[in-house]
Each structure stands twice: as C-alpha cells, then as structure tokens.
Amino acid sequence: MKATFPHLLHLDVALGFLYSSLGIDVVYPPPITKKTIDIGVKLAPQNACFPLKVTLGNFIESIEKGADTLFMAGGVGPCRFGYYAQIQRIILEDLGYQVRFVLLDHPRYGWIPFLQALRAMSGRVLSPLRLKRTVSLAWKILRFTEDLEAQRRALRCRVVDKDLLDNVIDGAIDRLRSVSSEAEFERIKREAEEAINALELHEAQKLLRVGIVGEVYVAQEKRINFNVEKLLGDLGVYVHNSVSTVEYVLHTLPFTKSKEKLEAWQMAKPYLRRFVGGEGIDSVGSTIRYAKQGFDGVVHLYPFTCMPEIVAKSVLTRVKEDFNLPILHLAIDEHSGEAGLITRVEAFVDVLERRKMNSKEKVEVW
Amino acid sequence: MELYLGVDVGSVTTKFVLMDARKNIVASCYLKTSGDPIAALKEGLKYIKAHFPPQGEIKAVGTTGSARHLAGVVVGADIIKNEITAHAVAALTRVPEVRTVFEIGGQDSKLIIIRDGVVEDFAMNTICAAGTGSFLEHQAVRLNIPIEEFGKLALQAKQAVRIAGRCTVFAESDMIHKQQLGFGKAEIIKGLCEALVRNFMNNLATGKRIEDPIVFQGGVAANQGIVQAFRDFFGGKKKIIVPPEHGVMGAWGAAILAMEYAPARTAFQGFEVIEKSFKNFSFNCLDCPNSCEVVVLEEEGEVKALWGSRCGKWTPRSVTQKFKEDLSFVLEREVAFSDETQSSGR
Amino acid sequence: MKKVGLPRGLLFYRFYFLWKTFLEELGFEVVVSPPTNKEVVHWGLTNSVDEICFPVKVFLGHVFSLIDRVDFLFLPRMVSFHKNEYNCPKILGLPDIVRNLFRYPDENLLDSEVNMRDRGVRGWLQGYLEIGRKLGKSERETMRALSLAEEKHRSFREQVRSGLLPEVLIDGKKPFPSFPEKVLLLGHPYLVSDSYINMNLVQKLADLGFSVFTSEMLPEKDIRKALKLVPKISFWTISNEILGTALHFIRNRGEGVQGLIHLVSFECGPDSLVGEVIERVLKREREELPYLRLEIDEHTGEAGVVTRLEAFVDMIRWRRREVESNFSSPFAS
C-alpha cells in the first residue's frame, strides 16, 4: 500500500510523520502549483467549490507518483466538504484509476466502515504507549508548524530582512519533515525559536492590525489565496489568522472541543444563532472578536460560492456597520486574478491607513 | 513653480496629469495604451514636455493603474498607488462632499463608498467586462456607429429594449436577436446602456448603500446615454455629478498622492526617458510546475526590473550575462516544451 | 386580527398549506407575497449580497415586499425535515440573513428551529410549539392547529403526487395539459414551481407536447430505494430526492419519461455535486436518455432557454426515430 492524502498548508509534515511512524508507505503529494489547480479544474464539476478541485488535483498528482490508496476525511454536512470524497471517487473511477479510497467518515454513517478506515490508517500494530507517543508527537509537529506561520504573520511587518524571516521559518518546516524522535523535534523547535528571536526588528510603531477569518482551507492555504498574508505583511501590516487546522481537528474529534471556536460561536450569537456548516459561524464570531480587540480591519477569505461563508457574508454586512469595521471579502476560485486581488488588498490597506489618520486628526480637534 | 506628475496606465488607456501645488491641472492627456504601455508612456511624456510651463519643476511623481509598477520604473515614481485610492482622492478633491464614486474604465469598473471624507468600502469588477467601456465599444462597432455618437442616439430613444445577459457575448447575441425582431438602433442602444448600468449595479452595488452625491468618472462618463441610464436606475432621485476632468481622475489622484508623499528628492527620471530605448518581454520560468510568467523590463539593454516570479528567485540582482545566456536557453526550452505538449495531445 | 407574512419562496412551495393552515387555525390572517415579478426580483437583487444564489435573492425580495404590511414574518428555521439529513446552509441561516440585512426586529420574526435530523418527529413538534408559544398560544391550541395543518399538508402532497404542480394548487391555476410523453423535470421545488424564475418552463414544454414529471410525484419509498445504489447519499434532503428520482428513472423505464432536465440555480452548492453524480451515472448506465442541464440565474436570457429546450425535444424525437427505424441521428456520436 502506498498511501497519500490532500494538502492543507503544512498538514503533510505532521501526517507524513504519523503514517511513516506507523509503518505506512507514504507518497507525499507534490506542492500545490498551477498544474495541480489546472488538473483539478479540468476534471471536477464546474460549479463545485475550489477546495474540491485542488484536492482532486493533489490526488491525481500523487497517483501519478505511484500512490494507490487515498486517505480522505468525510463529514455530515451541511457544507459540501463531507461529500468531496464521493465526487472524487466517482471521477477517479470514470478515469479508470485503480485506487482505493480510505474514507474516515462520521460513525453516523456506520461504525463498521469507520473502524475499518481507522484500521487501514493505523498501519502496523504498535504498543499503546508507542502509539500514544507517536500521535502526540505528530500533534506537536502540527501545532509547531502553525506557530511558525503565526510568527511569520506577526513579524513580517516589523522585520528588517523579510527574506531572512522566510528562510528561518521555511528552513525549520523543512527540517521537521525528517524528524524521527521527540528529542530531535525539541532541538529543531529550540533552534528555530532562537533564530526567530535573533531577527532584527524595526521599532514597533503604531502598526495597522488586520485579522483573517474564513473557510478553513482557503484562509490558510497560501498557494491558493495568493499569499494574502505576505501581501499584507509587505505593506507593513500586522496579521493574525483566526483559522487553524489544530482547532478544527480538536473540534471535530468526539472527545475534545476547541475553546477558541466555542468562544467565537458565543460571540457570533447576536448575529448568527446557529451553526450553518463549515466555518460560517466562526467567521462571524472571529470578526466580532477582532473588532472588540481593536483590530483595524478584517479580511474574509473563502472559496467562491461557499455556502456557509455566503451566509456569514450576509450577516457580516451588519457587523461591519455595528462595529464600524472595514471588511474585505475575497472569494477565491480558479478565475481569481492576481492583479485584481493585489489592487484590492492595497486599496484596503489604504482605507485602513486613512481611517487611522483621520481618527487621529479628529482626536486632536477635540 | 512646483509641479506634480500623475500617470495612470490602464489596460486600454493611458492618462497623464501635470498639476500645480494648488491641485490645479496644468496639462493633461488621454491616450490609447494599444497593448504597448511603454510607447504610450513616452507619448504622454512628449505631450507633457510640450506643454510644460517655463520655470516649472517636477517635485514628485505618482503612478497608478494596472501597469503602475512598470510605469513607476520607466518614469521614476515616488509613489505607486492602486487605482481605487487614486480615484477616491481625486473625487474627494473635486467634490469634497462626495459619498459614492462610480468609475467605469475600459476593462474594469469600480464602486467606492466614501463617508466623512474617508473611503469606507469599495468593490471592483475583475471578473468580466460586461459593465465596462470595452463592452460598449464592441457593440458600437457591431452596430456600425461611432462611439461618440452612441450617447446622443441613446437619448433619442423613446423606450429601451431589454437586453439580457451578464456576459458580453450573451448580451451581444441577445442584441442581435432583438435586431432581428426589428427594433430600431436607438432603442437597442438605450437598452445596451441600461444593461451596462444594470450589470454594474448587480456586480458591484449589491448589499451596499448608495448615497449621493455620486461622482461618475472614467472614460465612459463621457457617454450621455450611460449617465441618463444611471439617473433612470435611481428614478432621478440621486444627484449624479460628472466632473469635467472625468477621464483623467486616476492620474490626477496619483499626482495629488505624489504631492502628499513628496520626498526631498524626486525619483523622476526626467524627460530623457523619451529618448531611451526600453524593451519589455516575458518568459516562462520552468523550474517548477508553477511556470510563472516573468516579465522583464530592460532599459538600454540593462535589466531594470522584473515582475511575476512567485518564489522571488528572479531579481535584477541575479541578472548577469550568464542569465542572458540561460534566458535564450529557457526560451528555446519553452518552444520545445510547447511543441511537446501539443504533440502528446493529452 | 394580526397579520403574518409568508414570503413566497424556497420551502414555501413545499409547506405552504401546512404553514397557512397552521397560522389560520391559530387565529391569524396570513398575507402571502405576490407571485414573483420583475419588481420582487429587483428588490431581492438590491437587498442581498451578490454571491448568494438567485432563489435566495428572490426570497429576500418577497420578504421586502411584506415587511411593512405585516405584524410577523413567518420564517421557521427549517434545519432539517428528514432524519440524518440537512437543508442547505443558506436555509439554515435564512432567519439570520433576514434579521441582519433588513434589521428586522426579533420579536416579530417567527424563526423557531424545526430540526428532525437527530430527534425526528420530536424536533418537528418542538419547533411548531415554540412558534405557538411566541404567538401566545397554549400547547393544546398549537397541537390542534398543527394536526389540522398536517392533514392539509398530506392531502396537498397526495395531489402533487397525482401529477399537479404546487403552483397550480397554491394559486388555483388551470392545470397544465397532460400528455402521454413526459420529461423528468428535476430541480428544487422553488425553481420548478416558480414560473417567473423558470421562465414558464412547464408551459413551454407543454407547448412542445410534453408533460413534466417531478421528484415530488414519485413515492418516497421508491426514491429511498433508488438511493441505495450510491455508496453514500448526500446530506441535503431535496437534493437526495432529486438524485433518487434520477436514479429510479435511469434504472426503471416508466411514466412515459422520454428525457431528463435538471433545472439548477447557477450557484447551488448541493446540486453542483449531486448533479455531477446524476450525469456520471447516466453516462455509465443509460447514455441514450436525452439529458439537459439548465442553469438559471438573474442573467439568464429567455431566448437561450427556448433554443435549448427545442433542441432537447428534437433530440428526444431523433432518438425515438433511431430506435424505431435504426435511422442514424445527427446526435449519435
């Protein structure tokens, strides 16, 4: 068995470690490029959402590298994600690929397939203690890749040498790919933190602060969203992203809950009273949280036609007015042009800057 | 006399504005880009040079528009700003109490919401040209009417024919269909104007509160038929202002921004630029499947700037004689590669 | 007598008799928005975010037309009316969309949650009891009204099953003529039954000599039986009904069905995936069945729809001649 899985930012680092440690032969999907997107767009239904297309591209590129087993998660709706695997399966069947789909779906659709999928994904049998260690180290790796990205976002606006920042962080993520023990992981982590602390920073002036909200895939996957975080950072904006795979996984597991998400849901309540699938309610709640924390603006990233996020967008029209908070909605799909997106992001930052200048002037007048 | 230069290079037209320190326009021009922004830039500079006041001195330069970075390098800009901000700044200068800006250019359109002199929200149509000037030009050619006559004809129509379709191609087929049904040219043109306004409003204005005064700018604002269609759309209830300098508002905004951000020494390259030879070409970097299209600007045979490489590996600094040799190799490889893909017929 | 507004859109076409009877039995005057027209669409377009699908925009236009005329808006949050399934996220969030876009006061919005996904019938009752409470009615009054309403609803569904379209029953229109040859018209009821949105599609088919057969005319048990053919059904009830009906007719001939039209709203999430399954199963199992996917939004031109319908009908007739006389058709590839 040669197993593969779709990309989601640096999820491949943690998953690769996990499956390799369990003795599963892993085929890493090639990085998402224009080619990946082209393949997915060509084969997937025209009006399907963009993540379905890109992950289909991942699968096909992996199959061409020799993968014969596809690991994928399912879902219970009402967002389309839970049905991706079914559509991808039928497309791959029609193309004549001889591959096996291992679908980790909700036990609601039967305990037997659920346990079978778990069994297929757990490779060789380890002692409970070793299994626990392996899983917990994979979890740490995932958390650390997210931390590194958070650091990159926060520091990009202030760091003197932006290329050096990228080198430090990309280098650390690359080294994580070959981790084999807890001790090694801790060493990489320590060295990366030292390198980051050693970066030369500009004086912290009154920086603009922008929060990112949106759908879990597009709001994180830099190779899909034109790296909006970098664009903002290069314009001198401090960026925080409320979307996180760690929190997503925590919330999906049956025995844990994400505090972050629950808090956001609570904050969304006056505007959106119920879960509407995907991250719709998170987008609303996190936007309100940013408003209360005094952020200058919010960027809302989601796949074009994403149903939960369109509900969020409808609701956010009022949040925008009530909190007097500029929000830039960016719907991403294969037709999104880079030039237009850059123009809109730059104009958005101008809006935030001018508002800030004006509010200062107003204070002085008082 | 302190002067400020604003340059707006769009996909269809290139605009220049020379402005004095009191924000008055001293000279301006409006040219076709015709797919060659560098030629358009030189032509614009020639015009500005010919109309340059004696004892004038350029203190700062601003560029905007889709080719703002290229223009910034060629002309030498102190500030490079996106066209949304530039248009908003110019509208605010002309009509300080403005609350909404409509801008319809050749290939894109913008809507800007302004409250208390600050941009509050904006929308930009980047997906399709159904609400833009090229849509009208295209139909004018098809109907065999000079575009200048277009607006006047629309005003003559008693009623409009409803032209369906969000897409230019579909609108065109619907228009032909209506022609075949025997509607007159004037009615069809009025229908086209209404379709453009409807598309503009549907694409950009949904969910936004449009308050007046509305400043309507961009090349299309010259068209009486469209202005009337906007008035009709709002049932005559909103005040729509078309400023006299509607065609060059972006460039004017760039000049105003240049004045705001004026450095101690301007980066302006001088009017010698007109005499210099520039070369603008692109190649596909094939080092990874992203196959970025890298755009190169050469001045007098020297690489001055590069754009479009996502990983950032291509920089003027990395350019050497060797790179040029490599480049010819890359170009050859690209040709070979494209032959391959065609013959394999996937 | 207080007035309750019932916007004519989305699930209205499924639950109109239930809702109307329920409210009237509770002693309210029901105000239904007028059939969709140009003005309603315009209000919908100007009051919604641009990316939301056309039927929701139309629905919001209907809401807008009622807002100033009624004391309450009836907008139960129809999370689910089938065990283990959902409605689409936009329907889940509909009350919130209305509340925020129109700044509609909470106390006048009847948006209690009706959710049968986990709790079955109890979730159904709970929702209606809560609406009754909000309107100041006792549990007994509410239950009485609900059981009368359910009776009306059942007889409405029976009549639909016998071949009458919801719009005919709701507005007392003259039924469409009946022909032995039928087209399987699949699509959400708010597309199939709103003649303005679908540009009189049913009438146009009748003019061409075809009646329509919809997923609401096929008994539930047949739909569910057909759905067993796919490894995992979707989690959207109405899309499942569409899928089940398609699978049923791909496998079994009957009802005089000569071809299949899938009427889709341009940005419909569930149908974007379910439609793909239908198309692929069709290709695998019964490629000769004429199929047309008709996408509709606010920009759709009528001329294009007519052209496609006529071509589709031609295709049906060519196919038939081909079968009868082994005559090769221009469509045979």
Characterise this structure.
Chain C: InterPro entries: CoA_activase_DUF2229, Dehydratase_Activator_Redct. Chain C: Pfam families: DUF2229. Chain C: This is Acyl-CoA dehydratase activase-related protein. The complex is a heterotrimer of chains A (366), B (346) and C (333). By secondary structure, chain A is an alpha/beta fold. In chain A, 55% of the residues lie in helices and 11% in strands. Chain A contains 14 helices and eight strands. The model of chain A has no long low-confidence stretch (mean pLDDT 92). Chain B is α/β, with parallel strands linked by helices. In chain B, strands 3-2-1-4-5 form a five-stranded mixed sheet. In chain B, helix 3 crosses helix 9 and helix 7 packs across helix 8. Chain C contains 14 helices and ten strands. In chain C, the strands form three sheets. A four-stranded parallel sheet of chain C has the order 2-1-3-5, with helices on one face. In chain C, strands 8-7-9-10 form a four-stranded parallel sheet, sandwiched between helices. Chain C has a two-stranded parallel sheet with strand order 4-6. In chain C, helix 1 packs antiparallel against helix 7 and helix 11 crosses helix 12. The longest helix of chain C is centred in the last third of the chain and has 24 residues. The mean pLDDT of chain C is 92. At the A-B interface, helix 2, helix 13 and helix 14 of A face helix 3 and strand 8 of B.
Report how far the terminal alpha carbons of chain B are from each other: 64 Å
Gross geometry of chain C? globular
β-sheet strand percentage of chain C: 5-15%
**Helical content of chain B, roughly?**
25-40%
Low-confidence stretches of chain B: 339-346
> What's the helical proportion of residues of chain C?
40-55%
Shape of chain B: globular
Kindly provide the radius of gyration of chain B, computed on alpha-carbon positions and rounded to a whole number of angstroms. 22 Å
Helix-strand sequence of chain C: EHEHHEEHHEEHHHEHHEHHEHEH
How many angstroms does the end-to-end distance of chain C come to? Answer: 65 Å
Protein name (chain A): Acyl-CoA dehydratase activase-related protein
Organism (chain A): Thermatribacter velox
Domain DUF2229 (chain A): 19-72
Protein name (chain C): Acyl-CoA dehydratase activase-related protein
